[in-house]
Protein 1
Amino acid sequence: MLWSDPENKPPKFLREAQEMLRRSGVILALAMVVLMLVTGSR
């Protein structure tokens, strides 16, 4: 990559979408853990 190359930044809406997917993935993983604990305790 040369110093003269333009920066390879995704557009704002794409970055926001990636952030939202990352957050929803974390929430989904936490929900699965909670669900396993609840079903395991029965």
Note: The longest helix spans residues 12-41.
Protein 2
Amino acid sequence: MGWLRMVVIEELGFKEEEIDAIMSRFLCSLDQDDWESIKFVDDNEEEGENFFKLPTGRMVYFPEELLYKDLLSQMD
């Protein structure tokens, strides 16, 4: 990942270890719109398809469109 792209993602509030964890969760390449669609949520949600607990203890929500994009990339 380029340093400029990393800076843009970090400006969205993600820490380096969170970025690595999210990138390892997806087989598809994530663009800036994908990163902007990932939202931080209260950590009282259960981890599952749409919710993912990061190594920092914070929880994020993946929208259906992002999960669908990843599913389509696996079919290619």
Note: Residues 6-73 form one domain.
Protein 3
Amino acid sequence: MSTEHLFSELQLAVQRLLEKNQQLSSQLHQLQEQHELLQLDVLEKDEQQEQLQQKMQTLLTTLSEAAGR
């Protein structure tokens, strides 16, 4: 193989690697955005869970007080 041919093959391989790197970077960015959205969703669900637990505790306290009368 000639040096020019090897250099052309190397250039092509480097170009493919750069394109693949761009694709992977784009995928990583999308996954990071999805992760952030999921984290926000989990925080929201945790907050809803906490509010529900507080309401249940209030209800139990009210029922206990009513039963004690």
Note: The CA atoms of residues 3 and 9 lie 10 Å apart.
Protein 4
Amino acid sequence: MSEGKANAYSHYGMLHLNEGATAAAVDIITSACGAGDDTHKAGILAWAIEEDNLKKLRDKIKESASGD
């Protein structure tokens, strides 16, 4: 039997805060980087820093978590 891995979603009540939403966004980026080769990792990281995409992702997570 596998054990559940703690991640940013383990404490979903925090997703409406900057800290929780940022942790979730970083977890998403980390998972995406782990799914590809070095070229894909570089592309994902470049996307994250372009035009504040990481912040935009964080804000979308916060928005979704707040139920608005």
Note: The chain has one domain: 5-66.
